[in-house]
Write a structure and sequence with these properties.
By secondary structure, this protein is of the alpha/beta class. It contains 18 helices and twelve strands.
Length: about 400
Amino acid sequence: MSDTPKTILFVHSGQDWVRGSERVLLDLASHLPAARFRPVVWCNSPALRDACLAAAIPLVSTPFPAPPHQPWWRASREAIRQAIEVIGETSAALVHVNTLVSLPWALRGARRAGVGVIAHLHTPTTTDERVWCGLHQVNVAVGVSRFSLSWVESDGLDPKATRLIYNAVFPERLEHGSAAQLRGELGIPADAVVAATVGSLIPRKDIATVIAGVSGALRSGLPIHLLILGTGEELELLRALTASLGVSDRVHFLGDRDDVGAILRDATDFLISAAREETLGLNVIEAGFFGLPCVVSDIPPHREIVAEPATGLLFRPGDSDDLALKLELLLRDPSLRDSLGTRAKVEIRQRFLPDRFLAEFTDLYDDVTQLRRERLGWLAGFRFPRGYWRFGLQRLGRWGSQ
């Protein structure tokens, strides 16, 4: 084994914020064993760059390529050239692509440079997206849940080209700070039960159903308040919904916070997630770490974390009436909240702590960086799964109908 740490080049293109996928990148890059791996981040987000600087994670100074407008087989030559140069300048042994929008040119650059490339799947994908970005061509596609890899069989990709690595809770990040005074600052009575929902205010997170469900519970005379942590395009729409339902005094928009862990620990009784699409739900794991029960939409990735009735409650996606009924169960039965939270805490701390997460990524990096060079080129590394035939026939059908 070489005494020189291997450089892992993280490539990330996203919004100017630090949320789910950005947080996972930061947790991973800042906790890799320094004697073995050296992380370097290349990204387009000022917020992520600032977070990397704060964590002493080296950054690439080369300007980030513009968003691609062509599929991977027609990726921008200039972007590919930039990728090759950055790989060479950083002496990268592996390219870890954290968002698929960057994959077309990052994949081509890594292949030209003769280094391995992995893709980290943080969001649901479609067949078109997978073919367009070149996901089938990476050395390993990493899923954060079984659901995020559910496409493998239908696309005809060899499962050996994928790896399941669940995200982890990093206690030192979550446990800092205090939110002990938050309830008082918000005017929440001492006898109220406080729920929280955490995530971007975007359609697939379906915060509207959370608000409507809380409104339904309030109509039953139950003392619930809701904390909404996050920002996004639906903020004003959700504020208007809150006003129209007459629950503005019970719903508190807190925006993006860097003390989410403290709020969950010190000011929250349970978590709600109404996401219609998800890959894992980092917020659900973090709530469980603190022993909070979760009421979540009944979608496959949530079922990988929450087992009803042992560790939480499930409700039909988009059904605010069903959510209200589940909220009433928790609000009327403090012992149920306690028992669900206790079991959730045990489950999360057994399955989702950093040692397991870091060991699995360390093994993955070792496996890919030790691949023979011919496996990193197009001759031996190109794949043509049956999903390509389906994609091509669909495209022919579209062209024929025009």
